[in-house]
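pasting for ref
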Amino acid sequence: MTEVIESWSEKDTFALGQKLGGDCRPGDIVLLNGDLGVGKTVFTKGFGKGLGIEEPISSPTFTIMQIYESGRLPLYHFDVYRIADPEEMDEIGYEDYFFGEGVCLIEWASLIKELIPEHVICVTIEKELDKGFDYRTITIDRN
């Protein structure tokens, strides 16, 4: 099932993330795709809010993973942009998180595609500058 949503502002992107986070169940894996500066962090902050997380959420670009346990479900936020080889994911015990009781949100998941399970929620955020600086098309694929 594919859904395409228009976002006209950061507020819209945050709200969509919040709704998706609120709908998540234990074991869900969300792949978050989009170029640098497209709004992945805004979406993720909303996603965390939807899970009931009140602490500040930031991109784990240099740490690869951040864990937030203060919400209704744990959030395991991965940014695998700096992963050179998918085997590096073994070092952080990714399977415990991918197949655990929390929710995984993975940025740049195409870099570790061979590790991604079959059933995931794929979110792609794209800019369309001809519709305005803040406009985004957000596509959600549930397979």
